[in-house]
Design goal:
Largest sheet: 8 strands, mixed
Distance between the termini: 29 Å
Strand order of the largest sheet: 4-5-3-12-13-14-11-15
CATH topology of the largest domain: FAD/NAD(P)-binding domain
Shape: globular
Number of domains: 2
Radius of gyration: 21 Å
Oligomer: single chain
Number of helices: 6
Strand content: 15-25%
CATH superfamily of the largest domain: FAD/NAD(P)-binding domain
Helix content: 25-40%
């Protein structure tokens, strides 16, 4: 089997990721996406232990909860409804009133309350990739650093890919993130496009307990002595540049949520490209008319969260094992009406 991932600098997208495992915070009311995210988060609990045992590496799994704050009563009402909905799905989710938020995080601005997801958390994307590669090599996998230009097929069956040389394969998985649609030879246009996300980091205040706080689409996240600040959503093509306008948006959001951070200078800034689809859901599953061609792309803001569960689902599909009915929502053919 061949897994087609971005090559060269394209393959470093995980360096830009925050690594949050936050399905209950980034809720959009879409049950299949929500359940997939929760399943993805839970898989990392076992995976972290397995990788530590087989490779000796720690992926930095952190599950101390994430809060999504509401700054006014209309936001609070929306989030209370989200709390009720998640509880109806059988998942732990709590509402913190203004006093409880102030008691836990006295360094943020006064707010109306917060949705609290105690099982959400984060991991270190860099350490995850290093550990997975080490484990794959232990199991006999071979990594080839080469940019795939096209997939090759004979009739309705996949036969391999063309890069610097030709690689034969009975099964090919398209997992090239924002660049998935640029691979030649695909049977249909692939509805994935890049959306730039900028971030910044500054020192995490000493003597302040680590935390992850959300407000709308911005967040402050503690990791390795830094406060990671994010993130923008910019349709800028394949340009991963850091811009003054993007950084100003990040800092404006941070000042609104955490005034204590406003006077601190960033230690670094960066940007990455997210693979987005028109409906915001990933593309996972088989090509409907080419045997041996599989898709695992379009995960948007949740690439790290959904990586492990996507791999498990594809394994089941390729082995012709049954998968959960929610996976139908991610089928590649949903965008193709011809």
């Amino acid at each position: 089997m061949l897994i087609v991932e971005p090559g060269g600098e394209r393959g470093q997208g995980w360096r830009a990721a925050a690594g949050m495992l936050a399905p209950q915070i980034e809720i959009g009311g879409h049950e299949p996406s929500y359940e997939l995210g929760v399943a993805g988060r839970e898989r990392y609990v076992a995976l972290a232990d397995q990788l530590r045992e087989t490779t000796g590496l720690d992926i930095g799994l952190w599950r101390e909860g994430i809060a999504r704050v509401a700054v006014d009563e209309p936001e609070a009402e929306t989030l209370r409804n989200h709390v009720a909905w998640q509880r109806q799905q059988g998942h732990r989710c709590d509402w913190l009133d203004a006093g409880e938020v102030r008691e836990r995080w006295p360094w943020i601005r006064p707010v109306a309350g917060a949705l609290w997801a105690p099982h959400d958390g984060a991991l270190d994307p860099g350490q995850l990739v290093i550990a997975l590669l080490a484990d794959a090599e232990r199991l006999g996998a071979r990594t080839v650093r080469s940019e795939v230009r096209r997939v090759e097929r004979e009739g309705d069956r996949i036969v391999g890919v063309l890069a610097d040389e030709r690689y034969a394969a009975d099964d090919v998985v398209i997992a090239a993130g924002s660049w998935s649609s640029r691979i030649e030879g695909l049977p249909r246009p692939l509805s994935v496009e890049p959306v730039r996300g900028q971030m910044a980091a500054l020192p995490w205040p000493e003597a302040t307990a680590r935390a992850i706080l959300y407000h709308r689409d911005s967040y402050v996240m503690a990791r390795a002595g830094e406060a990671l600040l994010g993130s923008t959503m910019e349709y800028a093509g394949y340009d991963p540049s850091v811009t003054d306008a993007g950084q100003q948006r990040i800092w404006s959001n941070v000042r609104a949520l955490c005034p204590a951070f406003a006077s601190t200078r960033p230690v670094r800034t960066w940007a990455g490209l997210r693979p987005m689809t028109p409906d915001g859901l990933p593309i996972v599953g088989p090509a409907p008319d080419v045997t041996g061609l599989w898709y695992a792309t379009g995960h948007g803001r949740n690439g790290i969260l959904l990586a492990s569960i996507t791999a498990a689902l594809l394994h089941q599909m390729i082995k012709r094992e049954p998968v959960h009915e929610h996976v139908k929502a991610f089928r590649p053919a949903r965008f193709w009406s011809w």
